[in-house]
Amino acid sequence: MEKLVVTGPTPLKGEVTISGAKNAAVAILPATLLIDGVCTIENIPNISDIKISCEILEQLGSKITWNNKNSITIENSNLTTTKAPLDLTSKFRASYYIIGAMLGRMGEIEVGMPGGCKLGARPIDQHIKGFELLGANVTVEKGTIYAKAKKLKGSPIYMDIVSVGATINVMIASVLAKGTTIIDNAAKEPHIVDVANFLNTMGADIRGAGTDVIKINGVEKLHGNSTYSVVPDQIEAGTFMLAAVATRGDLIIKNCITKHLESITAKIIEVGANVEDNGDSIHVWCNKRPNKANIKTLPYPGFPTDLQPQMGVVLSLANGTSIINESIWESRFQYTDELNKMGAKITAQGKTAFFEGVKKLYGAPVYSSDLRAGAALVIAGTAANGVTEIYNLEHIDRGYENIEDKFRKIGAKIERVNE
Ligand code: EPU
């Protein structure tokens, strides 16, 4: 079993370069299935979710060449099956994008119910509603989703809730549909804009991505033969910004889009740390104990749920009592039990948690319950006095490229150990 061993406290200092966005890349890869040809995707994060995504595509008939560790060329001229491997698709969340892409390209797909982090109920009713409005027949039996359509037809689609996955999935499915699709109450996250930009580069006609109304005029085919570079990861950038604050460090975070980081920047300033926007990099430093602050997670441009645990580490060390209200996921406070093992004083009740700030955290053996909880524990271990051992690394490896390398280069004492 692998674990990360972190010895703290260390104020993180120096420069760190952000990778491509996981949640954009895991949608762009399946979206390439719409292209009857070749395309190259660059700035792909080298993480386990991407490796599984590539394996699924290869089993559908994609030819994938790795140009280097962050760039692939995909050729999708000869798809050989409409049955996606059930064992692989149930391993991660974004496998649901195979449905939108294969419905668009082949009019048929059989796929396992998506897996992913256990954050509470994760229904896909809005995805299914969108596909059905486009004319598909979708059934779910014994954990397998069967979706079929003769030819998808554009339609107005009102999303009952703001969903990142449903917005992207329906957008992907609509690209080759006949006529116009209008997605109302769409999610606005940066990765939605990035998937739309990718598809438009390949010949799609999508307008309004990044607003709550997205209009997709169906096109006959996508031309491929282009190269696309994935947007920098907003959540990885935010993770390092919060790591700088929690460890009272001084970091320059390079290759990020500072516009995507406004809600995080506002909270970092509220807790009394410093942020300087340098265009394509952001400088964050903190030389005193953070102040308390209250957070409510919201869809973009609100404070992202995917940075809630990392912010929780900052608030567990703050002067005073802070409240976090998690409005997206039912069960995203599992990490608070682990922080309490390290000396934090957090009480979580349902979707609200109270953080009575302590002056110091202390090293302890802790378990990562999901991807962002894992990142929070790495930050906590770096800020804490003594040795922290972090287990369940498979969660962290799903979404952060070489996390220990990046932390080590900015001063953390961190090792991956195979027990
Ligand atoms: N929801 C429904 N029905 C649906 C879809 C969603 O009720 O058909 C609900 C969910 O249960 C949740 C809310 O709507 O309460 C929002 O879910 P959303 O669909 O936006 O989430 P997702 O697409 O499953 C993506 C990210 C998550 C991130 C959320 C929210 C990917 C692969 N995952 O999930 O990322 O937390 O959006 O921003 O893009 C992570 O990276 O650690 C992660 C969990």
Secondary structure topology:
Elements: E1 2-8, E2 13-17, H1 22-31, E3 38-42, H2 48-60, E4 63-68, E5 71-75, H3 86-89, H4 97-106, E6 108-112, H5 125-133, E7 137-141, E8 144-148, E9 156-158, H6 164-174, E10 180-184, H7 190-201, E11 205-207, E12 213-217, E13 226-229, H8 234-246, E14 250-254, H9 262-270, E15 274-277, E16 281-285, E17 295-296, H10 308-316, E18 321-325, H11 334-341, E19 345-349, E20 352-356, E21 365-367, H12 371-383, E22 386-391, H13 393-399, H14 403-409, E23 413-418
Parallel strand pairs: 2-14, 3-13, 9-10, 17-18, 21-22
Antiparallel strand pairs: 1-22, 1-23, 3-5, 4-5, 6-8, 7-8, 10-12, 11-12, 14-16, 15-16, 18-20, 19-20
Helix pairs in contact: 1-2, 1-4, 1-7, 4-6, 5-6, 6-7, 8-10, 8-12, 10-12, 11-12, 12-13
The protein binds uridine-diphosphate-2(N-acetylglucosaminyl) butyric acid.
Uridine-diphosphate-2(N-acetylglucosaminyl) butyric acid binds at residues 23, 26, 93-94, 117, 121-127, 161, 163-166, 187, 305-306, 328-329, 371-372, 399.
What is the total tally of β strands? 23
User: What is the tally of helical segments?
Assistant: 14
The order of strands across the largest sheet is 21-22-1-23
What about the largest sheet?
Answer: 4 strands, mixed
CATH class of the largest domain reads Alpha Beta
Q: Can you describe this structure?
A:
- The protein has 14 helices and 23 strands.
- The chain has helices spanning 22-31, 48-60, 86-89, 97-106, 125-133, 164-174, 190-201, 234-246, 262-270, 308-316, 334-341, 371-383, 393-399, 403-409; strands spanning 2-8, 13-17, 38-42, 63-68, 71-75, 108-112, 137-141, 144-148, 156-158, 180-184, 205-207, 213-217, 226-229, 250-254, 274-277, 281-285, 295-296, 321-325, 345-349, 352-356, 365-367, 386-391, 413-418.
- Strand 4 and strand 5 (71-75) form a beta hairpin.
- The longest helix has 13 residues, at 48-60.
- The mean pLDDT is 96.
